[in-house]
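User: Just a sanity check before I run the rest of the batch. Below are the structure tokens for the first item. I only need the designed sequence back.
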């Protein structure tokens, strides 16, 4: 090859590079080209240079990312070629850059560069604002789902969750043969408190009672407010004896609660009805009805006590 031919080819390559650069510099997105084997950056457009500077000749994973001691584990080069080593088309993905923490939608493509070698062309559009909106929407959805499952006043599960999860627990118990206990609890003389001091004080009583319930039950247990002053528990893998121990702890904790209203100190007690199912073959509705029957006996016999269903 003569010197003249070499110069002509270099001139054509330079012109091609400048033409490509002019086009890519006009884009409002990061565009860079890197060698797929050496990871050398061959081109970065104006958008990229405004963030990373002139990075031509540098290794892409060293300058475009941080804390990398080798090619990025999330590098998409292996997705850009087919089994024959030919370009496989555009690969689209989303990624949060480790340097500036911005989110980008990346469109990666293997192409032949002006000198004939295979290179990676990436066009990365900043989608940080969109991702922020998506995260807000997801947070709002999660919050709405939590609200749909929670009693707003006490923060406990609501009636719907009690029956849905209680049913699931009993189905599991049926398969495993493990026992399940159900507790029904009612705040004593709650209507009298409401009538005497008003609903705002009644709400304070409900909130005060909810605190030991949250603290004492296990993570696997279901505790819910299922009515005005009525609370119910499903205790997986719990026999009637162990359920009685938990109910007694709850009863003693509630007995020690005091709600203050101006100069009045309001004492609180609660009554409990318990039932156990040894194999999961009784439905949650029937178990709750049996626990409620035991609760009725506890209230009829003087309140602030525990009764078991027989």
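Assistant: Here's the designed sequence for the first item:
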């Amino acid at each position: 090859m003569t010197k003249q031919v070499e110069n002509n080819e270099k001139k054509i390559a330079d012109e091609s590079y400048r033409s490509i650069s002019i086009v890519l510099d006009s884009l409002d997105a990061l565009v860079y080209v890197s060698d797929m084997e050496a990871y050398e950056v061959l081109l970065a457009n104006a958008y990229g240079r405004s963030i990373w500077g002139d990075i031509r000749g540098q290794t892409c994973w060293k300058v475009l990312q941080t804390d990398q001691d080798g090619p990025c584990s999330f590098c998409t080069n292996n997705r850009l070629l087919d089994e024959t080593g030919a370009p496989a088309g555009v690969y689209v993905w989303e990624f949060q850059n480790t340097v500036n923490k911005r989110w980008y939608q990346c469109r990666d493509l293997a192409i032949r560069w002006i000198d004939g070698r295979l290179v990676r062309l990436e066009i990365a559009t900043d989608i940080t604002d969109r991702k922020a909106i998506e995260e807000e929407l997801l947070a709002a959805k999660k919050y709405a789902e939590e609200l749909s499952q929670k009693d707003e006043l006490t923060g406990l599960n609501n009636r719907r969750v009690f029956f849905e999860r209680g049913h699931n627990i009993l189905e599991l118990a049926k398969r495993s043969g493990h026992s399940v206990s159900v507790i029904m609890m009612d705040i004593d003389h709650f209507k009298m408190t409401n009538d005497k001091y008003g609903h705002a004080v009644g709400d304070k009583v409900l909130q005060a009672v909810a605190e030991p319930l949250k603290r004492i039950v296990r993570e696997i247990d279901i505790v819910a407010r299922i009515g005005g002053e009525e609370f119910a528990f499903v205790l997986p893998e719990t026999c009637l004896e162990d359920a009685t121990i938990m109910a007694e702890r709850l009863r003693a904790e509630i007995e020690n609660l005091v709600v203050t209203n101006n100069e009045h100190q309001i004492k609180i007690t609660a009554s409990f009805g318990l039932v156990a199912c040894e194999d999961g073959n009784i439905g949650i509705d029937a178990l709750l009805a049996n626990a409620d029957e035991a609760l009725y006996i506890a209230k009829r016999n003087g309140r602030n006590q525990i009764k078991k269903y027989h």
